[in-house]
Amino acid sequence: QMGELLATQQAKIETHPCYSKQAHQYARIHLPVAPACNIQCNYCNRKFDCSNESRPGVVSKLMSPAEAVARYQKVKMRIPETRVVGIAGPGDPLANPKSTIATLKAVAALQHELHLCVSTNGLNLLDHVDDLKAVGVDHLTITINCIDADIGSKIYPWVYFNHKRLRGRVAAQTLIDRQLAGLKAAADLGMLVKINTVLIPGVNDHHVAAVAQEVKRLGAMLHNVMPLIAEAEHGTYFGLMGQRSPTESEIAAAREAAGQSMEQMSHCQQCRADAVGKLGQDCHADLDDDGSS
Ligand code: CLF
Ligand code: SF4
């Protein structure tokens, strides 16, 4: 039975293009049904996603669950290799649990051969992990940038939790505690948990090995150390504060350090909340007849 379970897990990894580089023949679609966010990241740049690096406004037009399912069906006709439906923004999927769950349910009801995938900052994960499991989410990403509240207070100016806006160390500690508890709960339910860490030079670059060790201990199976995109034209707060992006060699060193305990993903494309197609071959332009996206 253990062997069967492992074979099923392996199959779920090998057919998901983010979880396995070898799965590049499969495509993913992101459905942008989650506008709100419950935390503020200093690097939030309103364009990219899954890293939870995105915000409402600039990305795609937002969709209702019904519109999102229609979008999926249209894309599936054009790109039959579509094998993953992800919800990754443009805010946080679990700050918008109703639309997120409704969308996942509606997609699951189509009974296509699909993986349901969610990417979250983890603040609300503990409250929704059972619902995600019940609807069939096996692939879950949590963005964890640090496990130290002093570092966290440099990354997160505030966290909105239990009807209160928290700031400073308390905000960071609350987020970290909830992320780690949510991670453990998801892993215990058998989900394939991937961790994204945004590499911020001078802030968390000497800390990624500690993050990797802790998430490994709690049951994560893959780690994606992704570079901060700090260019001012991307609108990043850090960009405005003079924060720079990591260099290629800094990225390699961080992955090497984190790789001591966690398997590393190195083919991430830092997708948008409305990404479509195979990784690295996004094709929104030719998808919408009306040219609206
Ligand atoms: Fe999307 Fe993320 Fe699922 Fe992939 S993206 S929700 S795990 S289906 Fe993939 Fe894009 Fe990198 Fe994310 S390449 S940003 S890791
Ligand atoms: Fe932006 Fe994502 Fe951070 Fe929310 S979790 S502030 S959407 S980067």
Give a nutshell description of this structure:
The protein is α/β, with parallel strands linked by helices and 293 residues long. It has helices at 2-14, 65-78, 97-109, 125-135, 149-155, 168-188, 208-218, 237-240, 248-258, and strands at 27-30, 39-40, 82-87, 115-120, 137-143, 158-161, 164-167, 192-199, 222-227, 276-278. The protein has one domain: Alpha-Beta Barrel (TIM Barrel).
Can you describe this structure?
The protein has 293 residues and is an alpha/beta fold. It has helices at residues 2-14, 65-78, 97-109, 125-135, 149-155, 168-188, 208-218, 237-240, 248-258, and strands at 27-30, 39-40, 82-87, 115-120, 137-143, 158-161, 164-167, 192-199, 222-227, 276-278. It has a seven-stranded mixed beta sheet with strand order 9-8-5-4-3-1-10. Strands 2-6-7 form a three-stranded antiparallel beta sheet, covered by helices on one side. Helix 2 crosses helix 3 and helix 3 (97-109) runs parallel beside helix 4. The longest helix is centred in the middle third of the chain and has 21 residues, at 168-188. Residues 37, 39-41, 44, 52-55, 91-92, 121 line the site of iron/sulfur cluster.
List the helices and strands and how they pair.
Elements (H helix, E strand, L loop, with lengths): L1 H13 L12 E4 L8 E2 L24 H14 L3 E6 L9 H13 L5 E6 L4 H11 L1 E7 L5 H7 L2 E4 L2 E4 H21 L3 E8 L8 H11 L3 E6 L9 H4 L7 H11 L17 E3 L15
Parallel strand pairs: 1-3, 3-4, 4-5, 5-8, 8-9
Antiparallel strand pairs: 1-10, 2-6, 6-7
Bound molecules: FE(8)-S(7) cluster and iron/sulfur cluster.
